[in-house]
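retry 2 of 3: previous attempt timed out while embedding FE2/S2 (inorganic) cluster. Reduced batch size to 1 and resubmitted. Inputs unchanged:
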Amino acid sequence: MESPHGLEARGEDGMSRFVKMATLEELPVGAAKEVEFEGRVYGLFNVNGEISAIDGICPHQGGPLVDGPLDGTMVTCPWHGWQFDVKTGETPLGPKIKQAVFEVKIEGSDVLVAVP
Ligand code: FES
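retry 2 succeeded.
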């Protein structure tokens, strides 16, 4: 299969599409990147070499989660301090709030995210 350049959706199993959102070079350990695709904002994080993707918009008032500090798997929203686990989407605030988490696949140095 050809390696696509830029954002491109790929048909997979008919359930989800994997879209290239970054390269590993853009996401060193501890880094984060925000990517907008089809009107949705994705937050990509590199925790100890493992890439996670969650909804990049804080559900409190829309703060940019990728701009917050990352401590282990926990990112803190830069606006008012809500925290989210970038692997599970869970927050210490309780089970009623949960960020969407998206599957990530690495192909070569491409970071692909399963979009709904
Ligand atoms: S917008 Fe994120 S904590 Fe308020």
